[in-house]
Prior knowledge:
Helix content: 25-40%
Shape: globular
Distance between the termini: 17 Å
Bound molecules: zinc ion
Number of domains: 2
Amino acid sequence: MGTLAITNIGTIVSGDLKNPVRSGNTVLVRDGKIVAIGDTAILSGEALDKTVDAQGITLIPGLLDSHVHPVFGDFTPRQKMMDYIESSLHGGVTTMISAGEPHLPGRPKDPVGVKALAILASRSFRNARPGGVKVYAGALILEQGLQEADFAELKEAGVWLVGEIGLGSVRKPEDAAPMVAWAHKYGFKVAMHTGGTSIPGSSTVTADDVLAIKPDVVSHINGGTTAVAPAEVRKIIELSDFAIEVVQCGNPKAALQAVEILSERNELSRLIMGNDAPSGTGVIPLGMLRNLAFLVSVGSLDPAQAIAAATGNTARVFGLNTGIIEIGREADLVLVDAPMGSFGQDALEGLKAGDIPGVAMVIVDGEIKAGISRNTPPPTHKPVIK
Ligand SMILES: [Zn+2]
């Protein structure tokens, strides 16, 4: 895979909430992993296959969208659209995590069928990355009749996600809690729909349901699309330590409230972000960038902290070796700048002003997958490849 250097970086936003901005202007990547971060001295003696001169702009980790509803390949039957995953790559997303594949036409609802769907989706996306995006799919939808042995079998087959509880027929704590205990026993990460009913066939989930069922991730605490009441948002945050997800296709007021409570409690490490697309709201290729601009400009999040919530926090919650610019991590990286004409001088100031950044380059496992984005406004500075 070779050696890639990124030089002349203006700011390195690490994705690590504890140290959100790193010193240095150079990153060295070898065989898809970050091997050095510092100044140009780290390149001495290196035979470089490719160098990207960042022209002084900002490097961030590739964004992790924690809430996607894929089916197979780069097509969504929900909105009858092609290439939405590749389009999101142009919005800075390098990793997507499925919250379930409910949009498959004729989705099976018996134990054998839901297991088959989870195994097939997981393997299909493992073998083919649309646009280069790492899609972790095959999120089991909990249906009546699943037994402990089914979780053991799925684990063996490489499935490790439970899609948001509430999509299937298992909804109430007495049914779901034992299955979540089995899922955790076999190392699964479990998400749970929160709030009003999203699409016909799914269900309304309250704070008490979430607290009794004990998922790893409170999916869309701001609703997908209808949020729980403000007191319920507070109750979930105060009475649990679950990861708290806010999504683009949700209620913006509840998103701000959740982030404020997490900030007050000094618990921003629990915050993660997703799109909740494809969904009835549509497909939003710039949704992750819109989350950042909204929470930073209308809310009070610091831009580098917001980026950490959309990268390193999510990687930690799901146990993925990406999302932070540090030695040993997968080199999933994005160069971003203030968009042309922005009031801000760089990507971070632009976010404060409410502008989504211009994506100038997207790198996955050390390989350049996109140059100047076809979806964001153009960045003010354009990196040069040597
Ligand atoms: Zn949902």
